[in-house]
Amino acid sequence: MSIATLSTPRLRGAAKTLLGVESNDKAELIAVLEEAIRRGQITRDQINNAQPLFSSGAPVLPDANHATAAANAAARAEAVALDAVAATNRLRDQVTKVTDAVDAVTKAVIRLDRSAADQGVVETAIQAAVDKALKPVIKAAKANGTEAAVIAATRAPEVKTVQEVFGIALNDLKGKPLTVGVWNDPSAPAIDPSYIWQESILRAMVLSASTGTPVWLGGEKGTGKTQAAMQWAARTGRAFTRINFHKYSSAEEYLGATGLVNGQTQFVPGAFLTAYTHPGAVILLDEPTNADPGELAPLNGALERGAPRVNIGGQVWSRAAGVMVVAADNTLTNGDASGRYAGTRVMNSALADRFGYIVPVTWLPADQERDALVSLTGCHPNLAAQVVRVMTACRAKAASGDIVDAPSIRSAMAWIEAMPSMGVKAAWDISVAARQPSESAVQLEAIFTAQVNTADFERDI
Fold first, then answer.
1. Is the pTM of this model over 0.85?
2. What is the pLDDT of the chain when averaged over all its residues?
């Protein structure tokens, strides 16, 4: 197996312990290690067996003069660490019980008919349930100084209607307003007031939040899949974690691995587990079909509905209340028929089945894209409308196979922003045409000639 499939911490550890080389760049580490293998300095087995090394720490190799002191210090540290681990495990078990209770209360409240329930009664009921569940945890937390952190981690969300949060009136089939929980997490991303929601995406996100079922957003690049997940987190006040997948992604990179931290061996949770145990967090799995399906298999248990508990790194990890998992991908889990997204794979059916809602994400309707361009660039509405007309023609050609790729709203923004200083045609060349493969050049030139009246564009710049 190629060493490129190994995680960055393991490559870092091998380079440091075997060659004395330190680097955080995975490509550089691979190049250095492969050259050492070619020269016969090291073997692949030595690399595979190397201890992972995280950037926050470095291997500690005591010399003979410090062996005794190091051993004594290690013994004392071990005793303290064991006591801390035992206390932490007890507290984790208590917090798990509380978060499960809060999750149950939250889901029950979200399903309430707000037209029949007084908001004050609802909030009182939530607070009473949380206070009751928190009593034994607060007592334990006071003993080790984590009281404030525990209270923050087990807070209940504020329940509001979708219209209150997103400005869009959404009702169920009986005409009752749909509601969402607002977590008010200080680490939530900033709200983008110019982001335009598509109802199909918003309904799926509301459903995913209420059931705990992961949702898969699939569609062309540039259609706003990543922004949908981020802006959902922003509007509902949730922490947001984005995990980008690529050809060499490994489970260790996103879940975590055992390695040396400040000279001590311990399991270090990765981005996924850190967010997975953070109440209300949104976890975005970005382009998961780029990764080897085998490296994604550990997600199967974590993405079960309810409050799954998974054993990773010798510890049991429980999904915190309100945690949402969203995938954003250029496919709908079953491969890329167009051939335009090289490197994507068909998802393992077991993992794909964990995503209960598969939502095709398409381009915004022309009038909505026009409004978005006006909001994002400050251009004249007439200019935005003309640009959307050209983009629509390009996308139709991409759908028919006449050009290779469809320009995104980002390309449209870049074109508009470049026009004042470069002119209409030169701006088109660098922001739209140059992004496309050479085999699309003739068709793109034809589209520009047929769709663009330079004088009309210049009038509205």
1. no
2. 83
